[in-house]
Amino acid sequence: MGIVVGHVAQGLGFLLVGLWHLFNHAKLHAQRPNSFNSSPWFPSPFFARHLELYLIMAATSTFISTELFLGQTSHQPLDPDGTIPYNHLHNFEHSTISFSFFAYAALAVVFDRVLRPPAREALTQSLAALAFAQELLLFHLHSTDHVGVEGRYHALLQLVVFVSVVTTLMGIRYPGSFLTGFVRSVSVAFQGVWLVVLGVMIWTPSLVPKGCALYREEGRLVTRCDSQGALDRAKSLANLQFCWVSWGMAILAVVFYLVVVKLYGGGGGGGEAANRRYEAANEEDDDDVEEYYWMKTRNELETKRFLQMGIMSSTVSVSKDLER
Fold it and tell me: Where are the membrane-spanning stretches (predicted)?
């Protein structure tokens, strides 16, 4: 798989999952603002309940096969002595990241369909956090360039992955927090967009920054700049692009949320109206409960008073009989 195509394909996968989660979080919050509960994955109304998880497993399996076997000239990534050559380390790193998400999706299916343990939601969240954490670790300790233009794009990607790790962990402790789920969804979609930007801007010859060019080193294409000034300029352009994409994602997420609330929240104020109805129902229930316990207490007091009067009457009667 080509470098550009590989990054774009991965990016589109993250983007679709992020938008799917963003849609479901917004829809659930619009419909049930007071009983909202976040989830690491969402059942699909089409074909199969676990369609999201199956697609993750299929995409990661395809990517691993391409990275390690189909994309290699010899159709295997190892040296004749069975060791991993230096120029294939990045293939194993990328495949390990994909495997972590494959394992998360597979175990999520097992938890929901086979075993269904009481802590399945927390366990699934923990596995998702582990997958994001492993992605962050391998990008941070990547075997390829850390100081060039490619390294700057990957360093900025790590910021987004870090947000995904933190919000996923927070989802274990605060499953009812809409903001936690919302930010996590946006961060996953942001990962996808930035992977597309990274692949296109770094490995498209016509888009390589001025003063830099593509060179083939150790079997892969890398971007090298002719001077320190050109390198500094290319890194600054990456920083600017990240800021622009950040605001673009923020605006897209807010607009997306408002549209979903408009569609599923009863026309703009649906969420607030549902909130008022929910609170009113709770107030009515509280009144009923208070009235029930007041009536129960009154009846108990009356019964106790009646028994006391009966006992006193019996005592008086017995005393009179003795006097006689």
Answer: 6-23, 153-174, 186-204, 244-264
DSSP code per residue over 271-312: HHHHHHHHHHHHHHHHHHHHHHHHHHHHHHHHHHHHHHHHHH
- 105-114 burial: b if 16+ Cβ within 10 Å, else e: bbbbbebbee
Residues 6 or more apart from 136 whose CB is under 8 A from it? 158, 161, 162, 165
Quick one: tokens of 257? 């949320």
- pTM of this structure: 0.79
CA distances from 3 to 67, 88, 115, 145 (A): 10, 14, 40, 15
Cα separation, 211 vs 224, in Å, equals 9
Q: Tell me how far apart the alpha carbons of residues 111 and 19 are, in angstroms, rounded to a whole number.
A: 24
Q: Where are the alpha helices (DSSP H) in the chain?
A: 3-31, 51-65, 89-110, 120-140, 149-173, 178-203, 228-264, 270-323
| pLDDT greater at residue 17 or residue 81 | 17
Point out which residues pair with 212 in neighbouring strands: 225
- The three-class DSSP label of residue 265 is coil
Phi, psi (degrees; rounded to nearest 5) at 281 = -65, -40
Per DSSP, the three-state class of 216 is strand
Distance CA 319, CA 317 (A): 5
Average pLDDT over residues 302-323: 52
Question: Are 184 and 168 a contacting pair, CB within 8 Å?
Answer: yes
Of 254, 250, 142, 251, whose CA–CA distance to 198 is shortest? Answer: 142
pLDDT tens for residues 205-215? 999 999 999 99
Say if residues 149 and 235 touch (Cβ distance below 8 Å).
yes
